[in-house]
Amino acid sequence: MDFKFTEDEEVFRLEVRQWLKQEIPQKWIELDPGIWEETEESWTLAREFQRKLGQKGWLAPSYPKEYGGLELSHMKRLILAEELAYSRAPLSIEVEVTVNWVAPSIILFGTEKQKKDYVSSVAKGDIILCLGYSEPNAGSDLASLQTRAVEVGDEYVINGQKTWCSYGHLADYCWLAARTDPDASKHEGISIFIVDMKTPGITIRPLINILNRHSFNEVFFDDVRIPKESLVGQKNKGWYQLVIALDFERSSIGYAAANQRLIEELIKYAKETTRSGEPLANDPLIRNELAQLAVENEVARMMAYRIAWMFSKGLHPSYESSMSMVFISEVMRHTANAGMRILGHYGELDRDSKWAVMNARIMRMCLSSLSIGVGGGSNEIQRNIIAMRGLGLPRK
Amino acid sequence: MDLGLSEEQEMLKKLARDFLQKECPKRLVRQLDESDQGYSSELWHKMAELGWMGLVFPEKYGGSERNFLDLTILLEEMGYNIVPGPFFSTVVLGGLTVLTAGSEEQKMEFLPKIASGEMILSLALTEPTASYDAASVKTKAIAHNGKYVIKGTKLFVLNANVADYILCVARTKQAKNPENGITLFLVDAKSPGVKCTLLKTLARDKQCEVVFDNVTVSEKSIVGERDGGWPIVKDVLQKATVAKCAEMVGGTQAALDMAVNYAKERVQFGRPIGSFQAIQHYCANMATDVSGSRFVTYKAAWKVSEGLPAALDVAIAKAWASEAYGRITLSAHQIFGAIGFTMDHDIHLYYRQAKAAEIIFGDADFQRAIVARELGL
Known about the structure:
The complex is a heterodimer.
Chain A: H1 7-23, H2 26-31, H3 40-56, H4 74-86, H5 93-109, H6 112-124, E1 129-132, E2 148-152, E3 155-162, E4 173-179, E5 190-196, E6 202-208, E7 214-227, E8 231-232, H7 238-246, H8 253-272, E9 274-275, E10 278-279, H9 284-312, H10 319-343, H11 361-368, H12 379-390
Parallel strand pairs in A: 1-4
Antiparallel strand pairs in A: 2-3, 3-7, 4-5, 5-8, 6-7, 9-10
Chain B: H1 7-23, H2 26-34, H3 41-49, H4 68-81, H5 87-101, H6 104-115, E1 121-124, E2 140-144, E3 147-158, E4 165-171, E5 182-188, E6 194-198, E7 207-218, E8 222-223, H7 230-265, E9 267-268, E10 271-272, H8 277-305, H9 311-336, H10 347-359, H11 364-374
Parallel strand pairs in B: 1-4
Antiparallel strand pairs in B: 2-3, 3-7, 4-5, 5-8, 6-7, 9-10
Helix pairs in contact in B: 1-4, 4-7, 5-6, 5-7, 7-8, 7-9, 7-10, 8-9, 9-10, 9-11
């Protein structure tokens, strides 16, 4: 057992930190978009930053060198992810989806041409893919999806509706799961495609999220014709590819690092703020609450470290990632709620108020944290995975 | 970074798991819980033969020179099985104190006897205030003709009823700062004036009231510096807190394993109850809690083992494990339903352990106060 980073890793951490200090644009810091708060303005900044990270090799550090990666060790990737999140670097959630879920799936299942076309572009920061998974009647029960892809000559013709498609209005491509064999059982007839979002027949309708921002979309496919080569991996085996991809990179270290920063800001606030003539930091209830947040976040961090460590040993975490996800989602919600109690009325203020504190981060988090624990597999689904895959409890 | 066990640690863990399963069945656990003595001399000597008591002592004191982390791995297994007896008192509270702060003469006298299973120790720290701060140490030791006379009442003293020697934390000087003027004495439990009364407790662990009624000890019985005992106590408390967390991690794992096995076997409505989502989610939460407790505990234990500053990590581990063990055993009880509410069933043994472990060395609130301080609040 050894909980310290090597000297080389510590040097790397400093290098990343230094670089981020120089490269995070002032404008981004002013905009300070939290999760699900991107605007077109912040999106543009994030795209520029994505390319810079790509040039540095830090966007997709783990990819094979031939596709633009650095083949960086798992521990260094952990450090990088920690520093990016802690520094609130301009990275949208869709970049993470593209880099950590989509492109690794292409590396595993794609053709050589697809790897050349897409993976290298992802690593350079040139493209973003959105997920075309959920449908109105296929949420947690994703395998019930009904969007159809029919093979006609050299093409597939797609018809159906996707929903919760994050940043679909800004993405270049869609990573689409569609039914190619309606007669097979629900897990057997699904295939995965890459679809250019500019293809005729695609209609996008915005869904305005709880933070009053346009992050999600409904995407309609009406006779959308895509070349046959858009199929990724084996026809009708898409479900299994998709499940494997869900196991990639779910260490949630980024959430733990970002939340760490928020807790530190709450501690600072408690030390600097006086209420009824006493610093908040002297109130035993507030001390207890803040300490509990720190304890929980440390537990979350260790869970995330464990995932990275398992990868570094060549092991494949699955239910362990679910544990980590469920846990951090609850820690984040707890942080937001405890933060509201500590800030009192001030916690209610949005950031356009001159009275707002901590740039209204707590109230924004109070809203945005509702999504953690729902998106990417709800906590209930994660607990099912822990129970059945992890503990071997029976399905029936 | 490496969050796994070494090959040697895996071996120790497996050996301990198998040995205790065979030599310390729940039948024996119950029998010892119900007895006044609280330990089996036969099991005690077998554990000594395996080298467990001297695990972290240097070879010249009859030990096998393993590190603190190895000891926590062993304690995790002892927590998994539940092993009634004075191992924690003797090795962690007593042995490590003598090893860290004792004179060469004391080490030569005590450590080999601990290692061989001949000697049982106990630490008498807490008093009727039942807290772990220096100001609560009111028991006095007054110098008199080159000797010391100890007078006071110690409470919640683990295993003092079977101890050969009691490490008594006493005040030798009144000072403005209560951390000054505290001295540790190794007191022969048979000394005139030592009166030990067993307390009846929830966990049926052997906590005692120990009255020191003008007990005379020689100057040679002082461990460490006169008046400078508090840093020694703080050091041993830190180690004991992590060690207790390790035991708790073992206990949480056992409670989870028992509940999951039961959920797979128990059939209601024509299917195993473990196929119901309500039960599955209890189990998933328990498993997540076990994992969380384990890795923060390992981190704290590693820091202590490496001699790094560990106050924050130890407090985090105990704050978390204290509540997690309670949550886990409570969920286990819920899964077992009525059968868990019987003396015949084993799960209550863990529920009781969880309660005692939650409180000893400071509960979650106490630990969070330390965390807050360490974070600069």
